[in-house]
Amino acid sequence: MPRGGRGGHPHPPRRPVDLTGAISQAEKNDLVTVVNAITEKMHNDISKIFDSPPVSPVSTDQGHHHWLSLPLLHRKDATEDKENMPPSSYPLQQIGEGSASYRNAHKIIEKEEKEAMTPQLRELKKEALAFFRKWQAVILQRIRDISISDPQSAQGGFRGRGRGVPRAGIRGRGGRGGKTGRGGLTLATGPPRVPSRHTDLGLAGRCPPIPNTLWTLPQDKRKLLLHIVFLVSLSLSEYSANSYALLMNLTSCLNLPLDFFYAEEARLAKTWAQAALDVSDEDLLSLKAEEAKGQRKWKGRSQSGAARLAPALTAAGIAAGLLGPMAEGGRAICNLFGINPAKPTTKMMEVFAREIQDFGLLPIHGECQADYIDARQRPAGDRRFRLVIAMGGWMAEDEDMRKPWLCLGRQTEAYVLRWDPVALLSLGSSLETVIRSSAWSSAKKEINATTIFTSLIKSTWPVSLLKISKIMDNPWSIGMVRAEKAGAILADAIMRHKFQGERPVSLVGYGLASRAIYTCLMVLAERRHFGLVESVVMMGAPVPSESRVWLTLKSVVSGRLINVYSEQDYLLGFLYRFSNTQFGVAGLQEIQGADGVENYNVGDLPKGHLGYASVAGRVLKDIGWGNLDSGTVKQERPARQERQPKKGRSPRRQSRQQRWGKQERPAKQEATAVKW
């Protein structure tokens, strides 16, 4: 199954794996059923992304369709005392007031939106589902290929909680239509059900368990089943975002704690990475030469690291059989971590630096804090099966760009992307100058009186703000262009150069970095590379809020796609005024009409758009981002609280807020916007 339909590599041939004595035939059958049910749910979730009814923009009095009008429409619906408001102050005066003519126009627009989005998104949906079906078929087939020679199972007297009886409940592909005999043995003595008591309530809420009988087994047996599926996933010569989602859901269905899964994932990653480091560059190059001659199996003189992989992984001979050729050859092991002497990371970074100034990756944790320029320089203990790449949207003078992202935990391999620091420093300095000016203070009051959306729609801005706009407009425009280049380079690094290996990547960023992430995802979607990106968080994103855009982005994000916004981000709105505002601004409003996209209203930030750098850790914690180091998340004031204490608050709360204000860091740089 090539990754994304283009390029990739075929899966290695398989031999039947005999797990007799480790699990019973009934346990295997139920495992196939559960995995099939989980993957079917994953398939349906992908389909739902494109099946949700679109949300249409609101028509203005000029006849244009404006996505910025949606927040005003919601505000109108929530306001019941319209009669007490003077007509001149009513925000929807230019947009329509829910009249019959407005409703008719809305229906026409909705029809146009459906017709406009159908050809592009229909093709995208078709290819996304086709890619998933290929991956699903391989996973299920490899689990079915597990051989169990258990005489007790054939007689219905195997070890387990239930007895071997033909299934009368749910049927998966493993049951083959309810055949009797060994193929129909299950653990069920009644209808499948979910655990009555969840070991991990947080995981159960995030990944609701599917009714099954495996959770009734002893915990050690459930851990073994998860371990088996884990190794089967790795036998595909990759650890994709789909594999991670499957294992997360299976952990929930088996009623195991999430911490166990993370510990198992980290343990296997360290062992796998050490085996990859033990394979020398000479051996890898000789393997490539052998493959070029048409020899499918490497018979080089040295299989040092690869030969030791299977016994090092764990569990009584299970690993070697489940991994198949992965446990015999070193190249696939090294590819997982991007170790390829024929395409060294140093040369890749040099290519990227030609397009954008100073492009590099800085490790957040681990022994080696130097730039990621050699895949072999990272110790095996710092390696993980998943990566997180964090990006900042501006920079402050003499500040470590890793500082906002120290909250990212060690369950993932976390890096900060350094991109064009000169442009980011220029933008950060200019924005800091503007927000400290008296002109900005007075401009905020004027904008707040009419809302930022009205100012964007009508292009009415305070004169005092327009006078100082030249200070930041030029750095912002340069930053926008550089962000789009950085996003395109990042997409190329992920899908073509594979600097991260065959592992999923999560992307997190604020400001202009969100623009770069947006461009990266758009390139991946255009080239149909699925299964590469696990989760994405975009804070204060200067990108369109139109549903078609976010449906496209979600098609290449296997996990969570989260838009963090603030309706009080006046600075972002002003900077974005020259872009295509009719498509909305994601950093200012909720994304509507895109199933699977999450929204988080961060509220009023103390320093407006520049406040994202200081509250990034708090935001990630509030949205339930996994793998956070709680000890390093600053105990900042919650982002939703206003900057100044309101009347009636206790002196103790006021002093706490004042102390928080004194701890603010120097402002950082701004976000960027994208034309769709």
Describe the structure.
- Residues 1-14, 646-656 have a biased composition (Basic residues).
- It holds the Pfam family DUF726.
- Residues 634-645 have a biased composition (Basic and acidic residues).
- Residues 1-23, 151-202, 631-676 are annotated as: Disordered.
- Keywords: Membrane, Transmembrane, Transmembrane helix.
- The protein is α/β, with parallel strands linked by helices.
- It has a domain at 345-435 and 470-633: Rossmann fold (3-Layer(aba) Sandwich), CATH 3.40.50.
- Helix content is 45%, strand content 7%.
- The protein has 24 helices and 13 strands.
- It has helices at residues 25-51, 69-78, 100-144, 151-154, 201-206, 219-234, 241-253, 258-278, 281-292, 304-307, 309-313, 318-323, 331-336, 345-355, 421-435, 438-450, 452-458, 463-467, 470-497, 512-526, 547-555, 570-575, 612-622, 651-662, and strands at residues 17-18, 58-59, 65-66, 146-147, 165-166, 185-186, 360-363, 387-391, 413-418, 505-510, 533-539, 561-565, 597-601.
- Strands 7-9-8-10-11-12-13 form a 7-stranded mixed sheet, sandwiched between helices. A two-stranded parallel ribbon has the order 1-4. It has a two-stranded antiparallel sheet with strand order 2-3.
- Helix 1 (25-51) runs antiparallel to helix 3 and helix 19 runs parallel beside helix 20.
- It is globular, with a radius of gyration of 27 Å.
- Mean pLDDT is 76; it is low at 1-9, 60-65, 78-102, 153-182, 295-306 and 637-676.
